[in-house]
Amino acid sequence: MGYGCSVSANTRPRGVTREEEEMALKITEECINCGACEPECPNTAITQGDDIYVIDPAKCTECKGAHDAPACAGVCPVDCCVSA
Q1: What's the predicted TM-score (pTM) here?
Q2: What is the CATH number of domain 18-83?
């Protein structure tokens, strides 16, 4: 077994645990950049990316403890806030 670098299609951002990644939501390519989701996030996990808004999986808790359901999904007009 070598020490070479291998690339996996299922890589996580550095510092993000498997549990965090499994809990987090993601924003799909259907995002229309309306910005409705960003102010709804109690954890400031949503920011505007280059083309679409993005959710930081290290910060996303799916609104557990703050709302009954993910707030971003509730306000998204194109239903692009989905489970990761």
Answers
A1: 0.73
A2: 3.30.70.20
Q: Which residues on neighbouring strands pair with residue 81, listed in sequence order?
A: 27
Q: Would the CA dihedral through 16, 18, 20, 22 be positive or negative?
A: positive
Where do the domains of the chain lie?
Answer: 18-83
Burial class (CB in 10 A: 0-12, 13-18, 19+), 67: middle
Provide the CB-side half-sphere exposure for 62 (13 A, CA): 13
Q: How far apart are CA 13 and CA 24, in angstroms?
A: 12
* Per-residue pLDDT tens digits for 11-20: 445 665 655 5
pLDDT digits (tens, 9 = 90+) for 3-13: 544 433 444 45
Looking at residue 37, what DSSP letter applies?
Answer: S
Burial state string for 36-64 with b = 16 or more CB within 10 A and e = fewer than 16? bbeebbebebbeeeeeebebbbbbbbbbe
